[in-house]
Design a protein that fits this description.
Blueprint lengths: L1 H10 L3 H7 L5 H41 L5 H20 L5 H4 L6 H31 L8 H29 L15
């Protein structure tokens, strides 16, 4: 996923940028900037996808109001707030990661490990979307039987917390690239 953004950044380079990239000593700097730009774009994409899911949660709140589920509004609002905090963290994370994006020091296995984190984060968003769909479906029965709604809400909260923890791990790995070589700490991607 992150490689897609690097390739897109390279394709968008102008003639002067390509000329400068060919000069001795400049290529490493240009590659580092491309990686930083790709990382920023990827994080913007992840944040936008999460913001879309937050909008779905706000729609769940509206449906709760219409279905007599006032009791659950605060609980859903807590999840909305956690999603918003995660969106803000992803959008505003520092992208001057000198250690990781240093063109001379970065190794292929570290880039592959970072890519695994990115894929896992994207997978987490897909799981969050599924849980929001289940939560939406459970709104219809919340007035008569709140068990399904409570279970769907708990599952959604667990997934938001898990994504936050995964982003923490990615952030720490970017700040300390040696963590990317420790394969037992990398997320599994299906």
């Amino acid at each position: 996923m992150s490689e897609q953004f690097v390739e897109q950044a390279k394709a968008n380079m102008g003639a002067i940028e390509r000329l400068l990239k060919g000069l001795p000593g400049i290529q490493g700097y240009t590659d580092k900037e491309l990686r930083r730009d790709a990382d920023k774009r990827l994080r913007d994409l992840l944040a936008a996808q999460l913001a879309e899911q937050k909008q779905h949660l706000l729609a769940v709140q509206q449906r709760l109001l219409q279905s007599g589920g006032l009791r659950w509004l605060d609980d859903v609002d807590q999840v909305v707030q956690k999603v918003q905090i995660l969106i803000d963290r992803i959008r505003t994370a520092s992208y001057g990661y000198a250690g990781l994006f240093d063109a001379v020091r970065i190794r292929e296995e570290q880039l592959a490990a970072l890519h695994r984190f990115d894929e896992a984060l994207a997978g987490q968003i897909a799981e969050i979307a599924k849980s929001i769909n289940q939560l939406t479906g459970a709104v219809a029965t919340v007035a008569t039987d709140s068990t399904a709604f409570q279970q769907a809400l708990n599952q959604l909260l667990d997934q938001v917390v898990a994504m936050d923890l995964l982003f923490n791990r990615r952030h720490n790995a970017v700040l300390s690239p040696d963590l990317l070589t420790d394969t037992h700490d990398l997320p599994t991607v299906q």
